[in-house]
Specification:
- The protein has 245 residues and is an alpha/beta fold.
- The chain has ten helices and nine strands.
- It has helices spanning 21-29, 70-73, 81-84, 96-106, 121-135, 150-159, 176-182, 197-205, 218-227, 237-244; strands at residues 6-9, 34-41, 47-49, 109-114, 144-147, 165-169, 187-190, 211-212, 231-234.
- Strands 1, 2, 3, 4, 5, 6, 7, 8 and 9 form a nine-stranded mixed sheet that branches.
- It is globular, with a radius of gyration of 17 Å.
- 45% of the residues are buried.
- Bound molecules: SN-glycerol-3-phosphate (G3P) and magnesium ion.
- The site of SN-glycerol-3-phosphate has 11 residues, from strand 2.
- The site of magnesium ion has 3 residues, from strand 2.
């Protein structure tokens, strides 16, 4: 599978509100051909883009995402006012469907991270994957579906066996290879902090491309590429692309 060297994290988190359409556009403007984003379900089971279980950090709303319907979630300002002030005022929490429509228009690929609220692992994966299968055309770039939650990856495999799955983990502890194999994962997505070059070599030896997050330091990006890392998931896609060029 052909992977990009740079993937915008939650869009382009450092320069536009995370997990918003403005963030996807910003990643595209910075030259990224792929983005990563996080998907949860609303109370009424609509897959949307948001990272946290509550609204406070990234919006001007309050409360748990799992208790709110799409209609009420649409009323909040998702322009990350705490970080960007009024610059992105009016930005809304996007549905997964809206996100995919924009990515298609921009000609971008994506890594969908299933980020379920606790207890909603299977249903989040199933409903997100059904949306992808319904709206994402076969001729477009094949996406990668990742999750920290193994039940979500299992449900992803049942729902969309042909869509590649990514084994996502803060660190590659003993047992990662067995877990990745058991879930028929195609790629490995470790955090950069605990990663070693020996682990990258081992993953590559077993045929797994390695996608590392969240790499915002140019020197670290160069080092990881030197180890053979395939993709860097970064908040600043433009700057990291320049660093490794
Ligand atoms: O998918 C990579 C990365 O996004 C995982 O961590 O917390 O940023 O979703 P997080
Ligand atoms: Mg994520």
């Amino acid at each position: 599978m052909k992977l990009p060297s740079i993937i915008g994290h939650r869009g382009a988190k450092a320069n536009a509100p995370e997990n918003t359409l403005a963030g996807l556009r910003r990643a595209h403007e910075e030259g990224a051909s792929w983005v990563e984003f996080d998907v949860k379900l609303t109370k009424d089971n609509v897959p949307i883009l948001i990272h946290d279980e509550t609204l406070e950090r990234t919006t001007n709303g309050r409360g748990p995402v799992r208790d709110l319907t799409l209609e009420s979630l649409r009323l909040v300002d998702a322009g990350c006012p705490a970080v960007f002030g009024d610059r992105f005022k009016g930005e809304r929490i996007p549905t997964l469907e809206e996100c995919l429509a924009l990515l298609l228009e921009l000609g971008m690929g994506f890594n969908l991270e299933v980020k379920p609220c606790p207890g909603r692992e299977r249903e989040t994966a199933i409903l997100a994957l059904r949306t992808v299968m319904r709206v994402w055309p076969a001729h477009a770039a094949t996406p990668i579906i990742s999750s920290f939650k193994l039940p979500a990856l299992e449900a992803a495999r049942e729902t969309a066996p042909d869509l590649p799955r990514g084994y996502l983990s803060e660190r590659l502890d003993a047992g990662w290879l067995e877990a990745a194999r058991r879930l028929d994962c195609t790629t490995i997505h470790p955090g950069f902090r605990a990663l070693t070059d020996a682990q990258v070599r081992l993953a590559k030896h077993h045929g797994y491309p390695v996608l590392v997050w969240t790499v915002n330091e140019p020197a670290r990006a160069v080092e990881l590429r030197g180890w053979g890392v395939d993709s860097l998931i970064t908040d600043t896609p433009g700057a990291i692309a320049k660093a490794i060029a």
